[in-house]
Each structure stands twice: as C-alpha cells, then as structure tokens.
Amino acid sequence: MSCHNSIPFIMLAFMAFTANCSQKKVEKEKINVVVSILPLAEFTEQIGGDKANVSVMVPPGASPHAYEPTPGQLADVSKAKMYVKIGTPIEFELVWLDKILATNKTIFVCDASSGIERLNAVHNDEHRYEGSDPHVWLSPKNAKRMINSIYTGFATIDPDNEGYYAANTEKYRRQLDRLDKDIEKALEGKTNRKFIVYHPSWSYFANDYKLKQIPIEIKGKEPTARQIRHVIEESKKHGITIVFASPQFNTESAEVIAKEIKGRVVLIDPLEKHYIANMKRIVQALSEAME
Hints:
Elements: H1 2-29, E1 31-35, H2 38-48, E2 52-56, H3 71-78, E3 82-85, H4 91-101, E4 108-111, E5 120-122, E6 128-132, H5 140-157, H6 162-187, E7 194-197, H7 203-208, E8 212-215, H8 225-238, E9 242-245, H9 252-260, E10 264-267, H10 275-289
Parallel strand pairs: 1-2, 1-3, 3-4, 7-8, 7-9, 9-10
Antiparallel strand pairs: 5-6
Helix pairs in contact: 2-5, 2-6, 5-6, 6-10, 8-9
C-alpha cells in the first residue's frame, strides 16, 4: 500500500526536477549582453526580448563621465556574447572600453551610434566646444537608428532568431515614432525656444526640434563668475525662469542662477533607463518652461 502511494510522489518529484532543468536550460540559452549606459539597456532589452540577459556598466545615479567599472562587471563582460557601446566620445568608453573588451577576446561589439551624424556641443553666444556631443540617444530620431544597429548585432550573433529580433525592432520603432510626433506636437507654437541646462547634453534633441540649449557648464569645468553672469543675462533677456539640471551633477551653480532670475531648478535625467516615459516627462517640463 505504501509502495503504491509513493508512486505519485516520485512522479511529481521527477516532473519538478525536469521542469527545473528545463527552466535552467532556457536561462542558459539566453544571450548575455553588456551595455555601457541605462538607455542602451532599454533599447537592447526591447530588441532582445526574452532571448537576452542585459547588464549595464554605468549604474543608476552614476555619471559616464567619471564611473569606473567593478571587478564583478568585468566578470559579466567575460561571459557576454555582445557588448553594445555608445560609440561616441564619452569618457567612460574613451577610458575603459579597451580594458573592458580585453577581458573577452571573442565578444561581438555593436556600435549603437554607427551612421549617426555628430553634432558639436554649442554652449552659448560666447563659447563653442568644438568636440562632438556624445549624448546621441537623447534624440528619438537617433534612437530609431540605434535600435537598428542593435538589431543588426543580435541578427549577427543569433541568425536563427533574426525574425524575432526584427519584429521586436519594428514594434519599438513604432513607439519611438509616436514619441517623436508627440514631442513635435508638445513644442508646436512655442515662440521662446531657448532653455537653460547645466550640462550640455541636449544638442541632438535641440537640433531635432529647433530649440537652443544655453548650458552653464563649459567643457566639464565649473562655470566662472563671468559665465554665470552671462547665463543670468540671457535668462532675463528671454524670460527664462527654469534652469534644468541633471542628478549626476552638482546643482549649486544652477541654484545660484535660478535664485537670481527668481526661477527654480528642475531635474531632468539624460540617463534614465525607461526611455519613452522619461522623454515624455522631459518634454512636459520643457513645454511648461517655454510658456
């Protein structure tokens, strides 16, 4: 009797063991992908779907201008099949990418910004930084080009599932198309198309939507008294009362300017992972600032 009663238990145990092995096999079959920054993680997850495990090098709250990877992150790269780089002159990649890739000689490197025309980071009427702005992802038009590059990367390393990646790319491209149109509509009819921002991250965004950023910071250095005075004069001249700043940077100079123009500082994050929702929040803030 007890022997008969034990059969269902044995069968259940075997089924549970088989299911667990199958689950581990599915997880094992996922492609490990490493990316430089959070927006690239979002793009890569959208294209890779449930066939990819994506890890990011520069974590939330950190700046790609100063971050150093941990030993654990380098271990992730050593086990990855693809690395998605920004491909622009941003400090993290300039300083660390060769060292990172040296941990994995066979990794496929996907340049997400391939084919994107570089723009200079224009500061203000007195200063122009003649280096290209690395923040290409802040343009939804560029984001569409970037997901195409990431799709090509997945199709190269996993050609058997090319159709799956193509379908995911098309689905996300439609969302980015809607975002682009929503931004155009939100900024339509705004006559004052200048905005103040601490760090000059928004060249591509401003170029797309016929805006002009007036940054406080020059070439990564704290602004001088003369530069701050210039931004205050520009703010008063154009009736600007909102100073945008990023959470990755010290907001002290932005607070000084906001106080002088009787305005306020609003934080906008160029490195937020949830790209579409974040861009919508940023555009809403810009739209209100331009009233």
